[in-house]
Amino acid sequence: MAVTDHYIRFEIVDAVEEAPRGLLAHLHGERLRVGVVRDDVVRVAISRGGVFDESPTFAVCVDPFSREVTFAVERGDGVVRLRTPALVVSLWLDPFRLDVHRTDGSAVVETAWDGAGRSWAYATLNDAFVIRRRCRREDAIFGLGEKSGSHNRRGRDFTLWNTDVLDPKASGEFTAGRPDADPRSDRTSTEFDPYYVSIPFFYHQSHPSGAMAGSFVDNGYRAHYGFSGPGMPAILEAYTWLTGRTAPPPLWALGYHQCRWFDYTADTLEALAKRLLDEGIPCDALWLDIDHRTATGSSRGTPGTFPTSPACSPGSPGRASG
C-alpha cells in the first residue's frame, strides 16, 4: 500500500448545490461534481486549483450526458443524496464521504475508514491523490488490463503503464531498487508489473452475494465512473457503450493460430505449415514475432531468412501453401 502519512485528507464539505445532471460540492477550495450518466452509471470529478479538466478525452467515445435520465436530490441531516431508479449516491458533509448503493441497499462504492476512525474519500499530495474504499477480505477484484498472476487482483499494487516486459531496458526502471527477494524484481515472475496493456477499469465482486460493481478512471482528475451492475454483463454493456464496443472479428480470426517466439526462416515456417496440413490440423494463421524484420517498426523482412518474401523483395510472388 502507498505511504500516505503526509497526504491531506478532504474532511468537510462546505456547500452543495444542485447541477443540471446532479450535484456540485465545494470543499477545501476545490469543487466536486457528481453527475448521473445513466440510471446505473454515475461520474465523479474533482477540480485542481478550483478548475476542472475540461479537455476532450480519448477514452470516451460518446457524450456521457447525452441520454435522458431521471433523478432526484434529497437533503437530510448531514447528507445530500442523488437518487436514480437504479442507485443512490450519498454525499456526506462532515466528515466528507461519498458512498454509492443500489436501491436495494447493497454497496457499489463505500468510503473506507482508517484505524483512527478517519474517512478517506479523497486525499492529495502535490500531483498525487488517494481514494480508499471498503473491501471485504473475501471480495475479489478483476480487470486492470494485461496482468500476470491470479485473475483476482486483490492484495496487489499495479502500475498503469505499458512496457515491453521482455526488454530489460524497458522493464529495468520497474525492477530497480526492489530487494532480490521481491518477485517483482524479476521480469520473468508472474508477480512482475507492468505489462503490455494497462486499462484503468476493474470489477469489484462482493462476497457472499457475488454482486459486481465496476470502476473506470479516465485520466485521474478528469473523471471516475461507477457502474452499479450488479451483473458483469450489465457493467460490460455500460462500459463499452461509454468507451466503444469491440468490432466483430473476421471469421478467420476465430480459427486456430500458431504463434511462438522463435527464430523462424522461410523454410522452417513452410515446414511448420506442411506439418499442420499433414497432421490434418486446421490452421488459419501463422504468426511471426519482430525478429523476422530488419528493424522494429519496419515492415521489411530479413532477406537472409525470408529471401522470397514479398516484404523482402517488393514485387516478388513469394511462396504459399494451400
Walk me through the structure.
The protein is mostly beta strands. 10% of the residues lie in helices and 29% in strands. The protein contains 3 helices and 18 strands. The chain has helices at 168-175, 232-243, 266-278, and strands at 8-9, 15-19, 22-27, 30-38, 41-46, 72-76, 79-83, 87-93, 96-102, 107-109, 123-125, 128-130, 140-145, 198-205, 212-218, 223-227, 257-259, 285-287. It has an 8-stranded antiparallel beta sheet with strand order 2-3-4-5-16-15-14-13.
> What percentage of amino acids are in beta strands?
25-35%
Quickly give the CATH architecture of the largest domain.
Sandwich
Number of domains: 3
Mean pLDDT: 88
End-to-end separation in angstroms reads: 55 Å
* SSE succession: EEEEEEEEEEEEEHEEEHEHE
SS-based structural class? Answer: mainly beta
Task: Give the uncertain stretches in residue-range form.
Answer: 311-322
Shape: elongated
Report Rg. Answer: 25 Å
What strand order characterises the main sheet? 2-3-4-5-16-15-14-13
Reported for the largest beta sheet, the result is:
8 strands, antiparallel
Named CATH topology of the largest domain? Immunoglobulin-like
Q: How many helices does DSSP assign?
A: 3
Oligomer: single chain
Return the CATH class of the largest domain.
Mainly Beta
Instruction: Write the CATH homologous superfamily of the largest domain.
Output: glycosyl hydrolase (family 31)
